[in-house]
Design goal:
- The protein is 12% helix and 34% strand.
- It is mainly beta and 182 residues long.
- It has a single domain, classed as VC0467-like (3-Layer(aba) Sandwich).
- Strands 1, 2, 3, 4, 5, 6, 7, 8 and 9 form a 9-stranded mixed sheet that branches.
- A hairpin with a 2-residue loop joins strand 6 and strand 7.
- The longest helix has 7 residues.
- The relative contact order is 0.23.
């Protein structure tokens, strides 16, 4: 099995309810033990300043917490895309220039990150579960771009990543939010 670490999972209309409906998930880890990722297109109403005041000036717009997924919503993790400099202290590479940031470590300085997001919770799958969901057509696996993870308009990310595909998956962007009201 090839690892999908560092790629995006884009929900298809087969997932029409729940936390994964029209979601875009960045996979932080994927191996024989399962998969772990964060939903990158679900901003929450909570401000970063409310839970991590020291970090509020370091995250990029929108300056809010993101719903990372339905698991451990009472915990936070940060994802940072490093700038073209040496990785900062407390950053652990996940894929390319994307990595986890230690929220209990030293604060990074301005300019160390191209973008930084804080997530409440994460998404997780047991062994073989994600592969089964992909096989049944619930997810499309797409290469991630650094800018996908720190988009200033995360609400439009689902359509944006599908539109840039050179196959029929781009037509999913025309699928109505509620097919019964079509």
């Amino acid at each position: 099995m090839d690892s999908m670490r560092g790629r995006l999972l884009v929900a298809t209309p087969a997932i029409h309810t729940g936390p994964f409906s029209r979601s875009v998930v960045f996979l932080l880890d994927h191996d024989g033990d399962g998969a772990l990722g964060v939903i990158v297109n679900r901003p929450l109403d909570s401000e970063v300043d409310d839970v991590l005041p020291d970090w509020a000036d370091l995250v990029n717009a929108p300056v809010c917490l993101f719903d990372g997924g339905p698991v451990a919503m009472d915990s936070a993790l940060a994802l940072g895309v490093i700038a073209d400099i040496a990785p900062p202290v407390g950053w652990r590479q996940m894929a390319g220039r994307v990595g986890l940031v230690d929220l209990e470590g030293p604060l990074p300085t301005h300019g160390e990150f191209m973008g930084l997001r804080v997530f409440a919770g994460y998404a997780g799958w047991g062994p073989g579960q994600l592969e089964d969901e992909i096989e049944e057509g619930s997810w499309i696996v797409i290469d991630a771009r650094d800018e996908d993870l720190v988009s200033p308009q995360p609400e439009t990310l689902w359509r944006e990543v599908l539109r840039r595909q050179d196959n029929d998956s781009r037509f999913l962007t025309t699928y109505p939010d509620d097919p019964t009201a079509n």
